[in-house]
Structures are given as C-alpha cells and as structure tokens.
C-alpha cells in the first residue's frame, strides 16, 4: 500500500484524509460529475484555476493534471492557490474552512448552500 503523507498543515492533512485516505492513486466522481484524482481528488478545472503547477511547456494538460494530483506537495499547493484566489468570498470563515469550502464548492464554495458546513 502507500505510505501516509506527513504534513505540517493539519487542515490540509485532514482534507487529504477525507478525500482519499491520503493516498496518491485513484479517481472518483464528485457531486458535480467531475472526475477528481489523487490525494485531494483534484479535478482538471481546479488544476487550471490554480495555474497548472508543475506542468512542463510541452506536456499534455491531462498528464500534468494527474501528475500533480498524485504528488502531495503539488496538489496541496494547488489547493492553497485556489484558497488565496477566492478567499474574499469567504468573509468570516476560518482559513481551514475557507480552503475546504473552496476546494469542495469552487469559487463560490463559501456561499453555496450545497457545500457541506464544516
């Protein structure tokens, strides 16, 4: 099996554990019928919105997405970038809740009533 990731960020580690058991392999379909893969069940739209970290110039986008999703540090950085981009819509939420709600619900995750409360 896979070794568990040790992280300095308890929030990201909890998100990782909830999304995948904190293992790099595997994909699943989310509530919006998008395929999410890797540690955080990162989908390709999230990968695009976080500016495609780690993607090489001539690399296929889907391959780069899977590579990032299966790399803890790359996918965690993507989650952080998304949180930074859209946090203004999460007034009054903790940093951890902001990250989780944006990850689960996209740019409007803090306002979307269908996103679980944390």
TrEMBL record:
**Enzyme class name:** hydrolase
- Record field: transmembrane: none
The molecular function terms of the Gene Ontology recorded here are: lysozyme activity
Q: Which InterPro entries match?
A: Invert_lysozyme
Keywords, sorted A to Z: Antimicrobial, Bacteriolytic enzyme, Disulfide bond, Glycosidase, Hydrolase
UniProt source species: Ancylostoma ceylanicum
Query: Which residue pairs form cystines in this protein?
Result: 11-96, 16-22, 27-37, 50-78, 68-74
One GO biological process term: defense response to bacterium
Q: What is this protein called?
A: lysozyme
The EC number(s) attached to this protein equal: 3.2.1.17
Under the heading Pfam families, the entry gives: Destabilase
Catalysis: reaction(s) = Hydrolysis of (1->4)-beta-linkages between N-acetylmuramic acid and N-acetyl-D-glucosamine residues in a peptidoglycan and between N-acetyl-D-glucosamine residues in chitodextrins
